[in-house]
Amino acid sequence: MALLDICNLSVEFATAHGALKAVDGVDLKLDEGEIVAIVGESGSGKSVAMLALMGLLPWTAKVTADRMLFDGQDLLTMSAKQRRKIIGKDISMIFQEPMTSLNPCFSVGYQISEVLAQHFGGSRRSHKARTIELLQQVGIPAAETRLKAYPHQLSGGMCQRVMIAMMIACQPKLLIADEPTTALDVTIQAQILELLVELQQANGMALVLITHDMAVVAETADRVVVQYAGQQVEQRAVKDLFENPRHPYTQALLRALPEHSQGELLNAIPGVVPGQLDRPVGCLFNPRCEHVQEHCRQTPPTRNEDILCHYPLPLAGQKP
User: Fold this and answer.
1) Do 274 and 315 contact (CB within 8 A), yes or no?
2) What are the CA-CA distances from residue 117 to residues 82, 121, 182, 206, 285 (Å)?
3) Which of 44, 72, 256, 275 could form a disulfide with 227 if both were Cys (CB 3.0 to 4.6 A apart)?
4) Taking 70 as the threshold, does the pLDDT of residue 317 lie above it?
5) How confident is the prediction for the chain on average, in pLDDT?
6) How many other β-carbons are positioned within 10 Å of the β-carbon of residue 183?
7) Which of 195, 167, 192 is nearest to 179 (CA)?
8) Is the pTM of this model over 0.85?
């Protein structure tokens, strides 16, 4: 049985111009100890889909799904009280901006120990000892002296390590990392990603990595989910996807990597991800697709073998 089983997840937001469909029919299965990367441009619904899983969307959001199971438990039918026992303990999420995700009014030691108190109870002394252990585990030097530090007194990299310590405090079965290296310099990015993979392997937890960095995907993930304008357009094993992308959008993303550029200019995808008021008829990617045909402009595609395209790109050695 899969650790996480999501089927046909959709998220709509009520706006002054009507309903905005931020996530449209996403499926995701995840086994214990597996690393899955979710990639796509900004506005593709990557973060919103995972926030829906966490139950952290605002009241304006309408979340629907045919199935949303975690470790055999139905997240759609359980009460808010039951869900709070899981969120932060069995499912944890590292958010994009470490400097704004931490509460500026409390010390980092207090914020980590609060997670332990909420889910396990126990004494302050035991919480302090465990907090020091967690800070050491994520590579923060002189951990005991950092307990009384406030977020503004730490660097962005340090704050991200504190966030990671907080999220692994309860040894979750599933960790979601939403752009965990945003706003960090290149050296620190590599350290944070290496730390996440080490913790994932040491604790045997499943990891969902939301990222724009295809190089990170190639090095860390077992499987890749590609999203575009809220829709899941392709889902395949990492090696297969990089060697032989089937959806034109996936192909365009890979061509945009710097190492695939020819001359001085990078390969860019023309246009932008459609918003609420400029969604095209038919396939949502059709205005930007170099393989577009008239049928694509008229009829929305259906998913075939985890590829949402009327005319998937051929496999290597296969005739178009």
Assistant:
1) no
2) 17, 4, 29, 24, 47
3) 44
4) no
5) 90
6) 16
7) 192
8) yes
